[in-house]
């Protein structure tokens, strides 16, 4: 019991010290998390001096493994209690903070209105920023306890290395059964102070610690076994504390599993990053891989990608059904997207994952990567029981002088969007698709482990856009869903421009997305994208064929009228200086 009290810090005291610092930071916006915790060297010596006589006494009575198991159980209990008390202390502070209404989802708003009767509801009612601050506080608490546990493990290992001089140097790194290997060569070697050295060397032959003769092989084997047991138990204690911390963190993520997929990309990334940082830090100290917590993080990342894709699919379906196939001006931000995608220096490999102090744009290419930046092109779509939109809600802003004016400044617009030196006229759905493709690229850059899934979603949305456009224009479906009186050659020409633009953009999209995909998985995706590219080419050729057919029909119709017109050209009364009705009609058609 005395060893446990000396080895395990007072949880309440440690928690109070850490939380007092964390609470002071909750009144200010997140400006980064500092979780690096190091045990002071002097504190390490003090702790070693306290534990040394206790361990020697326990070695004499052969109680070290049993006491270390008791220590492990206590460490787990204290770790769980500290995390629980941290949540209890932080929740009232974080819930009392004003909630950003723009980032509140329907589920979280309902939980907040309900008063948060349960702990789960309180956790769900937290804003994304508040939840990150809670995780940050837990991170700091866990780091303190794990560093203390790691220090105890080092002390135990140091003592076991220095107590018996008859064990050969080869025995310093025993393989620990059931717990992995203990690499003492990489542990910090303590400088032996004169007092501690005297304590260790007071036993001239070092035999009183272990009963038996030094030349007795059974005694030597017994000493080796004791050492292995002690090293294993000290390592298992840190493993167990690490597992307990991982389990509690995973539960917190699980409580908010329904909310995280609906977050903005930037908000989700902050949670993703702090979890990755937590996993890396605890694995470094504890030495145990966090398979469970990594699995939950990967699962929520996949849910995030799937939800974001479903929202965009619903959006593009609604926009296409409401498209009137009228040319719109191209705001500057869309041209910037094209330039960033087509640039050979596209900042994908060198892009840094946004940290908690980064609430700005994720890239420096002039294109905002958060969903909030898409406000100019996409408005909210209700997807609870169906898709509810209006034609005005899905119009790209900046198509009129009034909408172009922002804070007294006029956004630059152009008649066409340029790709590969070719200008393309655009319609509303084409610009929205371009914006969505850039957002898929952002997700792929920030969640590289899900690049394969992102490419699959891009293929799906490209297929739908091509198929539905064909149905609406070539198939004249727009006459039913959009209220067009007829499908004119102008509509066909605009559809051809959009399809040609996307067809030319696909190679750039593929190049950017494939940078994070392993070579072994590229072949399947390449074949799918090649088929999509071919479908766009076939669609474009069909539109061109239809346009040529219309022009041929008009040509033949005008040729039949031409002989009658020619007869009147050389007449005596041909003094009319105005163009003929025939010429006006032909010019209008052209």
Strands, helices and their partners?
Layout: H1 2-7, H2 11-25, H3 41-60, H4 64-95, H5 106-113, H6 119-125, H7 128-163, E1 175-176, E2 180-181, H8 194-201, H9 217-255, H10 265-286, H11 291-322, E3 330-331, H12 332-342, H13 401-404, E4 405-406, E5 409-410, E6 413-414, E7 417-419, E8 422-424, H14 428-446, H15 451-472, H16 478-481, H17 489-513, H18 519-569, H19 581-589
Antiparallel strand pairs: 1-2, 3-6, 4-5, 7-8
Helix pairs in contact: 2-4, 2-7, 3-7, 4-7, 4-9, 5-6, 7-9, 7-10, 9-10, 9-11, 10-11, 11-14, 11-15, 12-14, 14-15, 14-17, 15-17, 15-18, 17-18
Distance between the termini: 96 Å
Largest sheet, strands/sense/barrel: 2 strands, antiparallel
Question: Strands across the major sheet, in which order?
Answer: 1-2
Helix count, per DSSP?
A: 19
Number of domains: 2
What value does the Rg take, in angstroms? 35 Å
Helix and strand sequence: HHHHHHHEEHHHHEHHEEEEEHHHHHH
Q: Please tell me what the overall shape is.
A: rod-shaped
Structure description:
- With 590 residues, the protein is mostly helical.
- It has two domains: 288 residues, no CATH class; 243 residues, Tetracycline Repressor, domain 2 (Orthogonal Bundle), CATH 1.10.357.
- It contains 19 helices and eight strands.
- The strands form four sheets. The protein has a two-stranded antiparallel ribbon with strand order 1-2.
- α10 runs antiparallel to α11, α11 packs parallel to α15 and α17 runs antiparallel to α18.
- The longest helix has 51 residues.
């Amino acid at each position: 019991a005395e060893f446990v009290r000396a080895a395990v810090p007072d949880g309440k005291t440690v928690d109070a010290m850490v939380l007092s610092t964390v609470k002071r930071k909750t009144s200010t916006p997140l400006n980064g998390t500092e979780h690096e915790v190091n045990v002071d060297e002097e504190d390490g010596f003090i702790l070693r001096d306290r534990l040394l006589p206790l361990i020697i006494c326990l070695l004499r009575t052969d109680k070290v493994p049993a006491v270390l198991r008791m220590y492990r159980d206590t460490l787990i209990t204290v770790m769980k209690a500290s995390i629980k008390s941290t949540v209890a202390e932080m929740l009232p502070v974080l819930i009392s903070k004003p909630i950003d209404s723009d980032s509140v989802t329907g589920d979280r708003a309902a939980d907040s209105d309900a008063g948060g009767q349960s702990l789960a509801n309180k956790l769900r009612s937290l804003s994304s920023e508040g939840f990150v601050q809670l995780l940050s506080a837990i991170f700091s608490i866990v780091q303190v306890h794990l560093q203390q546990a790691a220090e105890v493990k080092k002390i135990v290992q140091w003592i076991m290395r220095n107590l018996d001089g008859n064990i050969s140097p080869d025995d310093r790194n025993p393989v620990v059964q059931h717990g992995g290997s203990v690499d003492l060569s990489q542990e910090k070697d303590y400088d032996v102070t004169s007092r501690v050295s005297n304590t260790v060397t007071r036993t001239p032959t070092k035999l009183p610690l272990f009963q038996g003769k030094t030349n007795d092989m059974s005694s030597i084997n017994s000493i080796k076994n004791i050492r292995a047991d002690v090293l294993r138990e000290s390592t298992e204690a840190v493993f167990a504390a690490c597992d307990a911390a991982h389990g509690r963190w995973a539960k917190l993520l699980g409580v908010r599993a329904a909310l995280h997929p609906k977050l903005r990309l930037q908000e989700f990334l902050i949670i993703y990053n702090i979890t990755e940082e937590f996993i890396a830090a605890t694995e470094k100290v504890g030495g145990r891989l966090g398979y469970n917590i990594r699995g939950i993080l990967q699962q929520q990342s996949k849910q995030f990608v799937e939800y974001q894709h479903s929202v965009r699919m619903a959006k593009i379906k609604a926009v296409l059904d409401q498209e009137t196939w009228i040319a719109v001006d191209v705001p500057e931000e869309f041209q910037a997207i094209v330039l960033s995608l087509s640039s050979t220096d596209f900042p994908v490999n060198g892009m840094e994952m946004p940290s908690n102090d980064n609430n700005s744009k994720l890239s420096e290419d002039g294109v905002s990567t958060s969903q909030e930046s898409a406000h100019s092109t996409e408005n909210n779509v209700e997807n609870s029981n169906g898709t509810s939109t209006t034609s005005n809600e899905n119009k790209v802003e900046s198509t009129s002088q009034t909408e172009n004016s922002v804070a007294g400044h006029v956004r630059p617009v152009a008649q066409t969007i340029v790709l590969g030196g070719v200008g393309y006229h655009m319609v509303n759905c084409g610009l929205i698709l371009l914006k969505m493709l850039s957002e898929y690229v952002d997700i792929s850059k920030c969640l590289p482990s899900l690049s394969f899934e992102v490419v699959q979603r891009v293929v799906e949305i490209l297929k739908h856009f091509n198929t539905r456009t064909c149905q609406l224009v070539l198939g004249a479906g727009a006459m039913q869903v959009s209220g067009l009186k007829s499908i004119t050659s102008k509509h066909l020409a605009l559809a051809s421009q959009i399809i040609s633009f996307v067809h030319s953009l696909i190679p750039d999209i593929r190049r950017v997305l494939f940078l994070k995909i392993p070579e072994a998985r590229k072949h399947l995706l390449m074949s799918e994208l090649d088929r999509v590219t071919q479908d766009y080419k076939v669609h474009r050729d069909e539109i061109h064929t239809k346009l040529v057919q219309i022009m041929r029909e008009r040509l033949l119709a005008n040729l039949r009228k031409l002989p009658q017109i020619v007869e009147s050209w050389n007449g005596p009364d041909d003094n009319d200086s105005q163009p003929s009705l025939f010429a006006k009609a032909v010019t209008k058609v052209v």
